[in-house]
Design goal:
two-stranded antiparallel sheet; mainly beta; single chain; 1 helix
Length: 254
């Protein structure tokens, strides 16, 4: 945890010196998300239990740099030791703006800490996330996204190096306008490929279909409900198909 706090502190201090040049306000966003199942890269992370995630996101003066802090826990007993804190500095920007191949990217590294796990049980991990979206590539209606996750245990305990691996996610998004709704319905289709993470298979793991929308409360607050269905491909990831719902409450201070 000390490494994650130090890393976030260094980024915060560096952005303080950039604040005057940027002449923009520090962005602060809150997100409270409930999910009836937490499907973490295709895995039922809390079994049959739901999950509750609380996130605060600091956007450092519009520079592209920021950091998120998230607490994750199950909504009922049985997974107390699986509650987790995530500390995730990130950088996001745009390449080839307004071109057909415009690329929106977000690169982050997360220090994930399970405070109730003993240190000998690999209670911390690092996770890199590389996300790339091409909003104009297919004419603006269908938007492709590729996300790569690379995770490995923190520290020098070699006994848990087998947990190291990748997950590759291929996503298509499409917005359906409906004049009777305040915002479009966002349809999504995702295919997940497991590349050894957690000692699991090197194969296609799952396919997920989803639908969500955004209900604006005011200029600062919104609710985002969604429903999803995962078609599980490999039993080492998930032994059943899963339907689950999510709802997020978002609030923007700046």
């Amino acid at each position: 945890m000390r490494k994650a706090i130090l890393l976030s502190g260094v980024i915060v201090l560096s952005m303080v010196f950039m604040a005057d040049a940027a002449e923009k306000e520090l962005g602060i966003n809150l997100d409270l998300t409930y999910t009836s199942k937490w499907m973490s890269k295709g895995v039922e992370a809390y079994g049959q239990k739901g999950g509750l995630f609380k996130t605060i996101d600091f956007d450092f003066w519009g520079t592209g740099f920021g950091t998120k802090v998230t607490h994750r826990n199950a909504t009922s007993s049985g997974y107390v030791n699986s509650q987790r804190f995530d500390y995730r500095p990130y950088f996001k920007s745009v390449l080839f703006r307004d071109a057909a191949y415009q690329t929106n990217y977000n690169i982050s590294v997360g220090y994930e800490h399970y405070p109730r796990h003993p240190r000998r049980a690999a209670n911390t991990t690092w996770e890199w996330i590389f996300s790339f979206t091409w909003p104009n590539l297919l004419g603006g209606k269908v938007v492709p996204t590729y996300v790569a996750h690379y995770e490995y245990p923190a520290g020098v305990n070699q006994a848990f190096r087998g947990l190291t691996g990748w997950v590759h996610r291929f996503i298509l998004g499409y917005d359906v306008d409906n004049p009777e709704l305040p915002a479009p319905i966002h349809l999504s289709a995702e295919a997940g490929y497991s590349d050894g993470l957690g000692g699991r298979v090197h194969d296609w793991a799952y396919f997920t279909l989803g639908a969500s929308t955004k209900i604006k409360i005011n200029d600062r607050a919104a609710i985002v409900p969604g429903v999803y269905h995962q078609l599980s491909v490999d039993d080492s990831i998930c032994k059943r198909d899963v339907t689950y719902a999510m709802v997020s409450m978002k609030y923007k201070f700046k």
